[in-house]
Amino acid sequence: MSQAFIKKEGIAQSYLSRYLLVLEKGCRLKTIGELAKDCDLSVGLMQSALKSLEALGAINIERRGRNGSFIAMIDHKLLIKFANIGNIVCAMPLPYARVYEGLASGLKTQFLDIPFYFAHMRGSDIRIECLENGVYDLAVTSRLAAEQHLIEHNVHIALALGKYSYAEGHKLIYRQGALNDIRRVGVDSTSTDQKIITEQWSTGGNYDFVDVSYHECLNKIVSGEIDAAIWNVGQGKELEQLGLTTQSLVDDKNLNHDYFYKASEAVILTRKDDIQLQQLITTMIDPNALLAHQKHVIDGVIEPVY
User: Per the database record, which ranges form the YhfZ helix-turn-helix domain (predicted)?
Assistant: First the structure.
């Protein structure tokens, strides 16, 4: 916040900056009186705040007399500096895979001007529930998981990052030479992706389902507690060393391949009514730069920082 302002002037400037963040060029502004009433400040303070943002180059106003005032130019990134935005906390998957580390590191880099933190937790259902309840501001899930909640829940896809930005490919994992002996299949009850894909794969089969934390699936297969699980495969050599092997599911004509593609795409969720944060994501995030950063982490070119 600019030190040229006393406390109330700073409040007026930050309130006005937040209001303007969700507007675009050509939008009609509320009157100064309406804005002052909204934040319980004087008209003089609000008028001064508007003039200061114009002088700083954050906005240019076209005044049309009785027809009102309209935005002729707006610099959202500059407005962020004056909006006095507090901490933003994003619910992320546990960072057990490089694809998730790359995504977290890339997001952290994109939000350098804002206090941006992560809460890492297993299960897309839990992350979405925490988002809806206001515990966190953002949540990262697959498109497949997000679409199960869009209609009946207060969530909105603010940004989609394309295929393989969330998972490289789900496959059936089991002990080498034991494909025909699969009976106990691990499923994480909090993972929408794994539940849906496992249900599709297992249709018509005779299996016992065991509730297993997603990131513990491999260890449970190795120990013999379960025989198989659907898992996001991205570590072929490590699987061989563990005595495990995989079977592709994408080639199975009996399965809905659209599910696999949606399960591979990362999306960033907000609450439906959080227009300001949706605008912030649009302003701050360069999807191409984010994906390039993620790939560098996956390839070992850079170390993740989050």
Answer: 26-71
Quick one: 194 exposed, middle or buried, by C-beta within 10 A (0-12, 13-18, 19+)? buried
262: how many CB neighbours lie within 10 A of its CB?
20
pLDDT score, position 118 = 97
pTM: 0.79
Pairing of strands 244-248, 170-175: antiparallel
Whether 249 is covered by a domain: the verdict is yes
Are 284 and 245 members of one domain?
A: no
* Domain annotation covers residue 39: yes
Q: Which residues contact 151 (CB under 8 A, 6 or more apart)?
A: none
- CA dihedral 103→240→226→231, nearest 10 degrees, is 30
Q: What is the DSSP letter of 30?
A: P
User: Taking the chain, what is the end-to-end CA distance rounded to the nearest angstrom?
Assistant: 26
Structural domains of the chain, count: 3
114 pLDDT more than 90: no
d(C-alpha 98, C-alpha 103), whole Å: 8
